[in-house]
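ingest -> validate -> predict -> emit
validate: passed (alphabet ok, no gaps, 238 aa)
predict: started
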Amino acid sequence: MFLDEFHSTDADRICITAEQASQFARQIAGDYNPIHDPCARRFCVPGDLLFALVLSRYGLSQHMTFHFCGMVGDSVSLSFVEEEETGTVSVVDQSGKQYLSVKRSGWTIHDPGTVETFTRRYVAFSGRNFPHYLKPLLEEKGVMFNPQRPLVIYDSMGFTLEDHDPCDLDLDFAGANLDVKGKRGEAHLEFRMSCRGRDVGIGSKKLVISGLQDYDAEKMDTFVTNFTQLKLANPCSA
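emit:
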């Protein structure tokens, strides 16, 4: 399984080290958000890694929503708690603190190839948050995050599939919007799914951006340049 190197398993619990989390972010998602750097003061495991682990365990359901409730730190012992009657899955630590809540309904695809393809397609899309999708939104609204301490948090995502036949899914960006409320912004990134040119589903991802300030083109251009150089220096990203 392609996720094996990004976590360890002990009985019914999993553990993700900061190094494993950072490798997933860069190698699979192409995500260079500083919050996923092992040495980051506010390090957290990428939400997309938790997302991928849920799909690998429970399959790809027709309707799924993922809500991230907290930031997973280095080497936190996690378990998956399933409530079959409600179709809910929770990711919690040993003290019962919840980090992810998943709701699912409808039919479920368990075909490993289809699940992995969908996971890789979505994670690659998700990892392109910045600068591809967020920069134009920020510029349009005349705001930006603090380039010294960028804080962009993965809040939630959801999708609906219309076709349960296993196939090689494609996933494409379908538009975005940004709602600004003072120093806080909520970005919604829409995507659509297709199979051999036929539409098979839609979805949306929500990001929360904190510490907004007036847009400064020079500062943003410098940040983007440094960000791009970092990616170029790590050619293993997906």
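The chain has one domain: 4-232.
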